[in-house]
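To whoever is on call:

I kicked off a structure prediction for a single chain this morning and the downstream step that reads the tokens threw a length-mismatch warning. I double-checked the sequence; it's 201 residues and nothing unusual in it as far as I can see. Pasting both halves so you can look.
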Amino acid sequence: MAYVLINHGWTNVRPQDHWQRRLAVALRRQGHQVFYPQYPNTLEPNFAEWSWLLNSELEILLETRGDSNDEIVVIGHSLGNVLWLKAATDALLPSGLQVDRLLMVAPPERTGISQLPSFDITHTDAEIRDALARSAKSISLLGSDNDPWSPSGLQAAIGDPLGLQALIIPGAAHLSSKDGWGPWQGVIDWVNNPEADLTRR
């Protein structure tokens, strides 16, 4: 069993046809402990509100897990990844927390969230990279080659600055439900086995 936190993105109200909603249901049916908070004001998100809820959910997750050695897995999509990055860099995660695995799906470029100044990360790439490494033992970066939120390319915009090798799924756009990303067996399999093929539909 794993303790899984799912962080949704901008405008997401956890619709039934989104892969994250389907993931939460599938993992709960398998017996995993799944935390899937609905962040407030999703049309006009504010980092202070989102980071407060993120920290609160993580505290409850840690209390629920107790002294067990079960894995903690965090899976973010889009703005949910910026939330994690900024919270880690600003030292707003629970003290001493280092999750076992972090999957960052389709994080936007910094310029892509310019309409949300509260989510701006003003630290250097090196500072962000160090904070990210402290927050997770293993980090996976996944996206597509035609994501409108990452026009420079995921590897160049996110992977290279953070020292990560991106896994690219051709033609997957922003990996949102409107892009056809509802059923996604690969991400379900990955929670159970980090060696699983994330590209499997």
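Update from on-call: the warning came from a stale cache, not from the record. Cleared it. Sanity check on the structure: The chain has a mean pLDDT of 96.
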